[in-house]
Amino acid sequence: MAIAVSGIEPTPTMPVHVTVTHRGLNARAEPEGEQTEGIGYSLIGCYEELAHPVRVLNHQVPWDKGSVTSCINACYNSGPYTGLFGPHYLFAAVINGDQCWCDNVMNVKALQVDQNRCNHLCENGPFEYCGGSREYQLYYWGETGLIPSTVNPANPASVGAGSGYYVFKGCFPDSPHSRVLNGLSYSSEHMTPLYCAHICWAQRFIYSGVEYGNECWCDNTLNVGSAVSVRECNQSCEGDSTFACGAPNYISIYQGAPRLS
């Protein structure tokens, strides 16, 4: 992977803003020092990747590996978010010079690092930086200068309705040797807190819990100690990355009403 070396011309650039028009993305991305006001994707910093399987962003998309603009264009045209100009992802990022990632949230534990660590060149475009070996060069959709502070995967306060209504009880440590919930387990690429609650409700369980992004656990009793900070349950659900589904060894617990026999 190519890394920029000082003294070699031309000097690579790092776009700070890619504007959007009614016809789509502007063909020109503004480098540092030439930022244009307007709606588009703005650079918010260099962020270190998290420990597997948790990621800062969760949706990898194909791109030509030639420029930041091409990655942003891929995210803009791939996402489920319907906004002013149609479906798009709110976040776009390049990493390692050859990967493009998108999402509508960023992990709550994402750590911003020195911008100089995003020093890898785009694989097919040696005149722009495209992140670091484990660092995202991260862009966010919105007005110029807007820096998101609370756009993270959410543990909803409640899910379901009627007799299938479940209330969030907190984030708890879990272990393969001492499970918080033991009645039923299920995994799915469609997992969300609501999806799991439906499964547990159908099997007449009071408690439902999501973990590891794609696991659902049910039971009528809790084998649990004290709750921990909800920040520990920070892994995006595989079924919808805007929601949190626990994390490795942490489970998001929801409680429903007792079912009549």
Automatic annotation (TrEMBL):
<dbReference type="Pfam" id="PF01822">
    <property type="entry name" value="WSC"/>
</dbReference>
<protein>
    <recommendedName>
        <fullName>WSC domain-containing protein</fullName>
    </recommendedName>
</protein>
<keyword id="KW-0325">Glycoprotein</keyword>
<keyword id="KW-1133">Transmembrane helix</keyword>
<keyword id="KW-0472">Membrane</keyword>
<feature type="domain" description="WSC">
    <location>
        <begin position="165"/>
        <end position="257"/>
    </location>
</feature>
<keyword id="KW-0812">Transmembrane</keyword>
<dbReference type="GO" id="GO:0005886">
    <property type="term" value="C:plasma membrane"/>
</dbReference>
<dbReference type="InterPro" id="IPR051836">
    <property type="entry name" value="Kremen_rcpt"/>
</dbReference>
<feature type="domain" description="WSC">
    <location>
        <begin position="40"/>
        <end position="142"/>
    </location>
</feature>
<dbReference type="InterPro" id="IPR002889">
    <property type="entry name" value="WSC_carb-bd"/>
</dbReference>
<keyword id="KW-0732">Signal</keyword>
